[in-house]
Amino acid sequence: MEQKVIQSIKKYAVPLTGEADLNIIRGKTDKARFVLLGEASHGTSEFYTVRAEITKKLITEKGFTFVAVEGDWPACQAVNRYIKGYDTVSESAREVLSSFNRWPTWMWANEEILDLIEWMKDFNENPDVQPKVGFYGIDMYSLWESMEEVISYLTKIDSPDVEIAKKAFTCFEPFNRDNQEYAVSAGLYSEGCIDEVAKLLATIQKKKDQYPCEEELSLNLEVNALVAYNAEHYYRAMVVRDEESWNIRDKHMVHALDEVMKFYGSKGKAIVWEHNTHVGDARATDMAHNGMVNVGELIREQNAPEDVYVIGFGTHKGTVIAADEWGVNHDVKIVPKAVRGSWEDLMHRAGAFDKMLFFDKENEHLFQQKIGHRAIGVVYRPEFEQFGNYVPSHMAQRYDGFIYIDETNALRPLAVEMVLL
User: How far apart are CA 357 and CA 311, in angstroms?
Assistant: First the structure.
C-alpha cells in the first residue's frame, strides 16, 4: 500500500520551488468564497510565510476581503484597526502586535506575520480598494477582554444597555479572571453566569441595527457578546466533557466567521488561517467517531462544494516553537523525522523536496487510505510524538490540497509581556 501511495504522490505532486509556483492555487480556488489554510503546528515559520503569500495572491487577484484567524477577537481588532486606518496612533505592525499578550503569545506575535500586516495596510491605502480588507480573530478565549470591550463600546455611545453588560461582568468578577476556576464552578456546581451572558447577547442582537456602524462598532459589539456567551458555555462544558467543549469552540468560530461574512455582504470572501485539526474536515478522521465536528466540516456543510477550498500543511522534520506544558515558557524543539508509514513520511519518500498535491476527481481515489497525519500543538513533547501526534486521516477527503515542506524552521516570536488567562 505504501509504495502505491508513494507512486501516486510522485505522479500528481508538483514542486514548490518559490512564490511563483503558488500561482496554481489561483485556478484551484477560482469559484471559492472560503479558502481555509491549515498548519501542522502553531510554531513553524514556513507555514506562516507560505500562507501569507497565498493570502496576498487571493486578495489581489481573486478579490478576497478578509483574513480570519485562530486568535482572540479583541487583539485581532487592534490589527484590523491598524490596517484599515482606524488606529491613528500606532506606528507599526510590531507595535500593534503587543496586543497579543495571552499565552501562547507566539501564535500571532511573531516576525513572520509582520510583513503581511504591513502589506495589508499598504493595500488598503489605495482609494480604489473597496471594501477595505480586514483581519479578524474568530476564537473564543477572550471572555474577560470581550466583556470589557462590550462595556467600553456601550459606554462610548452612551447606551442604557451598558447596565446589562456591567451586570454580566459583575457576575464573572468573583472568579478573578481564572478560566479554570470558573469552569469548575459552572461545570460542577452550576454556579455560573449563563443567564447574564444570554441576556446580554440577546439584547445586542436585537438592537444591533440601532448601534452606530462607524469603525465596525456594531460588528464588534455583537461578536464580543457572542464570545462571552460561547466562552461561558465552553468553560462550563470543559470540565465535564472535552468533546462537547471542542464542538462549542469550533461552532463558535464558524458563527463568528459567518457574522463577518454578513458584514461584508455579497462581496465577502474569507481566507481562514487555523490549525489542520480545525480546517481539515473532521469527517475524514477519527474525530467523527468521537462525536466531534470542526470548522472545515461545518463550512463545507453550509456551502456548495465549489465555494470552499481547504489546504492542509505538513513537514517531515525540522524545528518548532512549542512548550512542555500549558502556560510555561516556549522554546525551540526538534521535530523528528516523520514516523514510518505516516503521510509526512510518504511525502518525503516520494521526493525530499517541497511540493504541492491537489486532490480532484482524477486522483482522489488513489488517496482514500487511512494514514496517520502529524499534528503538533502548542504543547509538544517530541519524545512522545509517535504515541499521540498522528491523526488517522483519509487525506483526499480531509483536504482539497496539501502543501508539504520537507524541512521546516521554528517561528520567530516577538518579545511581548505574557499573561496566562
Answer: 9
Is the separation of the CB atoms in 223 and 256 below 8 Å?
yes
Dist CA 154 CA 162 (whole Å):
5
Q: Are residues 183 and 66 in the same domain?
A: no
pLDDT digits (tens, 9 = 90+) for 196-215: 999 999 999 999 889 988 99
Omega before 413 cis (within 30°)? no
Could you tell me the residue range of the domain that residue 188 belongs to?
143-241+252-265
Query: 283: number of CA atoms within 13 Å, CB side?
Result: 10
221 to 26, 211, 363, 405: CA distances (angstroms)? 35, 9, 46, 40
273 located within any domain: yes
pLDDT in tens, 44-65: 999 999 999 999 999 999 999 9
* CA distances from residue 247 to 189, 237, 291 in whole angstroms, order as listed: 22, 10, 9
Q: What pTM does this model have? A: 0.96
Report d(CA 338, CA 371) in Å as an integer: 12
- On whether both 205 and 277 belong to a single domain, the answer is no
393 CB-near residues (< 8 Å, 6+ apart): 280, 284, 285, 343, 370, 371, 372, 373
Closest CA to 251 of 277, 271, 273, 278: 278
Residues 6+ apart with CB under 8 A from 383: none
* 209 and 190 part of one domain: yes
**Same domain as 276, residue 257:** no
Residue type (1 letter), 195: D
